[in-house]
Amino acid sequence: MKNSFLKPDFLNPSEERPNILLVMTDQQRFDSIGAVRSNFNAKTPNMDKLVKRGVTFENAFCTAPVCCPSRATLMTGFHPTRAGVPGNSEAPLNEGLGTIGDRMQACGYETVYHGKSHLKGDLANYGFEVTFENSHDESTRKEASRYWRNRDWITSKRPFFQVVSFLDPHDIYFLDGAATAPKTLPPWANRFDTLKGKPKIQKARQTAWSEERWQYYRKFYAERLERVDRELGELLSELYCSGYGCNTWVIFTADHGDMGGEHGIAFKGPFMYEGVLHVPLIIAPPDNMVGGKFRSFPQGKVFKPSRSGGMASHIDLVPTILDLAGIPADPKLPGKSLVPALKGKPFKGHEAVFSEWTDDMGIRCIRTKNHKYAVYATGEEELYDLKNDPEELENIASRKSARKLREELRQKLKEHLQKEGDSFLLK
To answer: What is 19-350's CATH number?
Structure first.
């Protein structure tokens, strides 16, 4: 790739190319941030600050409800099977696709990775020059901060692309085995789902806990959220105090969500419910806190915080990062840049987004604005009317009245899989 750059048109030609910081959490639901919508009563002041000064994509979805395949998408911009990591057993990425590290390094960026990777192979082989692979959030934050502190922002003009990957709230798995908590949160509307007419594997994963036990689960999840929020706050404080805050875009997301007790199910797994697929996605502009005063960016132009309702997918992050860096778009990437939304322009998003699961059994899913269709390797199907049944309680896949809709969505899903080289529906 040739080392040439095209600056985004909203940057002044005299401005340096921006740094880009991608911050990821693990297993964080969309409805876990106070400033957006919280079903856990967690205090998230630092995530809230990002919401208040950035663009929040309210309908962002991951490509897999589990770590490795989702992270493969974030690394390459391709859906998991095409990226070479269809399941959660660590596997090397497919060669020849090029990672975001490869692309950014080739265009002159210093590429940095701190924290959890959960991908097989040396991060150096994925285009990262400075690495600290680690699953202890405090250590991750300290090493990322040390990188900035040891880098002279006055003399070092080479921009950086950096990933900081936190583990929490993934440690929900280490909740007390018998603890309960008082009822302080309303039960989920789908808490007592019988799962009648739904794929059998869901019933096998359902947990018969008391409401007090579920309350403790949500309380513990909130504690893990608050813990990672504190690390995020310290991280961003170090970014600004190091002198890099005034020229660094911050992208915040999670690899996937958590069932949280919806449908009586804990953790993650072979489900295509909103709890595991709907993730936070916030993009905040460079921020210069000088003398306690916020300076607009860039050159007097005011960046307006906003909410975007268009459907976004993790496949959009690589194109967005390239766009922010002024790197020409790659037509081979299936995603689209989210930069128009950052400029205050309408962002319609995707007509449909896709997710997949391969461990234990195969599942492929298509989600549109109002409907979700999933097909299992067993032949079982799910179809939900998200507009009238947002809790995904009633599977209407077998209804005669839904036959036309089911076939339309199945065909769109099949076309997507054929384009991706995924033979799931062709077997």
So the answer is: 3.40.720.10
